[in-house]
Design goal:
The complex is a heterodimer of chains A (142) and B (181).
Chain A (H helix, E strand, L loop, with lengths): L3 H20 L3 H26 L5 H31 L39 H14 L1
Helix pairs in contact in A: 1-2, 2-3
Chain B lengths: L1 H5 L8 H22 L3 H21 L3 H25 L15 H22 L15 H10 L2 H22 L7
Helix pairs in contact in B: 2-3, 3-4
The chains are: A mainly alpha (142), B mainly alpha (181).
C-alpha cells in the first residue's frame, strides 16, 4: 500500500477537526473535533510504524498511549464543561469570555459592576437567579 | 527518477488500497458531517461512524490490536461519555441554529489552507513510499503485548497512574459539594 493514502487521509481528518474546533460553538462539539484531530495523529502513527517495521513498535505503543490520554482528556474536559454549565447555565464557548482581552475595558473586570453583564448565563436556565446572585458575592469576598 | 520508476504505480491499485480508499472516503464524509451538522446528537452518532471507519483502516494496516482498542475505547466509551455530556448540558434535540459560531468562514479558510499545504507536503514527500503489508502481521495482539510489556512497561505503568489521577479529578470536579445546594 502506498504510504500516501493513510498520510493524506490523516491530514484531511486533522483539518476537518481543525475546522470543527474553530467553528463550533458548543463546548462538547469542540471536544468531538479534538477527538477527530487525535485520531488523525493515531492513524499517522500506525501507518508509519507499519511502514518502518520498527522492532520496538514505538508507533503502536504511542498510539495506545494517545488513546488512553484522549480518554483521560475527555473525562476531565466533560467534567469541566458540566461544571461550567452548572455555574453559568451555558456551554457556549463564545459566551465564556471572562479571560478575553476585549481591548476596550482597561483594568480588571469588576464583579457586580457593568462588566458582570457579559458573563450572565443564558435566559433558558432555571439557575439563572442563583448564579447571578452568586457572582457579586464571590467578587466581594475575593 | 529511478525511485519513481521502480515503485508501484497509483493507477493499478491493489485490493487493500481500494478498500482503504473507500473506507477512507466514508470516514472523511462522516467526519465532515460531524463538524457541520446542526443536530448535536447526530454529530455524536456520525462521530461513531468516523471512529469505526478508522478502526477498519487500522485493520487494513494489519494493526489488529489497536483496531479493537479503538472500537472498545472510542466507540464504546468516549462517544457514550459525549452523549451523556450532551444530555447533562441540556443540549437541544433537533436543529439548533446556533451550532456554528460567527467565525466559521475564517475557520473554513484556515482549515482549507492547512489542508492544502499539508496535502501538498505529504504527497510530495511520500509519493514513492510503499508499505509492505506482507509477512507476519505487524500489530497482532501477540506482537503488541510482547513489545508493550517488554519495552514499554514503565511508560505503561506511568500512564495508568495518569489515568487514575485524571478520573479521580473528573469525579472531584463533577461532584456537588454540600454547601452549594
Amino acid at each position: 500500500m502506498h504510504l500516501a493514502y493513510p498520510a493524506v487521509l490523516a491530514v484531511l481528518l486533522f483539518c476537518v477537526g481543525l475546522y470543527g474546533v474553530l467553528a463550533r460553538r458548543n463546548a462538547i462539539l469542540v471536544l468531538m473535533s479534538v477527538e477527530l484531530m487525535l485520531n488523525a495523529v493515531n492513524l499517522n502513527l500506525v501507518a508509519f510504524d507499519v511502514w518502518l517495521r520498527d522492532t520496538l513498535h514505538a508507533g503502536q505503543a504511542l498510539t495506545l498511549f494517545t488513546i488512553t490520554i484522549a480518554a483521560a482528556e475527555i473525562g476531565i474536559g466533560l467534567a469541566i464543561v458540566l461544571l461550567v454549565h452548572r455555574n453559568r447555565g451555558t456551554s457556549d464557548v463564545d459566551q465564556l469570555t471572562d479571560l478575553a482581552d476585549t481591548g476596550t475595558e482597561p483594568g480588571p473586570v469588576h464583579f457586580g459592576g457593568p462588566g458582570s453583564a457579559s458573563i450572565a448565563p443564558g435566559t433558558d436556565n432555571p439557575d439563572e437567579t442563583t448564579a447571578d446572585q452568586a457572582l457579586p458575592a464571590r467578587g466581594q469576598t475575593a | 527518477m529511478n525511485l519513481a520508476a521502480a515503485h508501484p504505480g497509483f493507477l493499478s491499485p491493489t485490493g487493500v488500497e481500494v478498500a482503504f480508499v473507500l473506507v477512507g472516503l466514508a470516514t472523511l464524509g462522516a467526519a465532515l458531517l460531524t463538524v457541520t451538522t446542526r443536530q448535536l446528537v447526530h454529530a455524536a452518532l456520525w462521530l461513531v461512524v468516523a471512529l469505526g471507519g478508522l478502526a477498519v483502516e487500522y485493520l487494513l494496516l494489519t494493526a489488529e490490536f489497536i483496531a479493537w482498542v479503538q472500537v472498545l475505547i472510542y466507540v464504546g466509551s468516549v462517544v457514550v461519555l459525549l452523549l451523556f455530556g450532551l444530555m447533562l448540558t441540556k443540549a437541544p434535540i433537533g436543529r439548533s441554529p446556533d451550532a456554528d459560531s460567527g467565525n466559521r468562514w475564517v475557520a473554513l479558510a484556515v482549515a482549507v489552507a492547512a489542508a492544502g499545504t499539508l496535502v501538498w507536503v505529504v504527497v510530495d514527500a511520500f509519493r514513492t513510499t510503499w508499505i509492505d503489508l506482507g509477512g507476519p502481521a505487524q500489530g497482532s495482539t501477540e506482537v503488541t503485548g510482547a513489545i508493550l510489556f517488554r519495552h514499554w512497561v514503565l511508560p505503561f505503568e506511568a500512564l495508568s497512574v495518569l489515568l487514575l489521577a485524571a478520573l479521580v479529578g473528573a469525579i472531584v470536579l463533577s461532584k456537588r459539594t454540600g454547601r452549594e445546594r
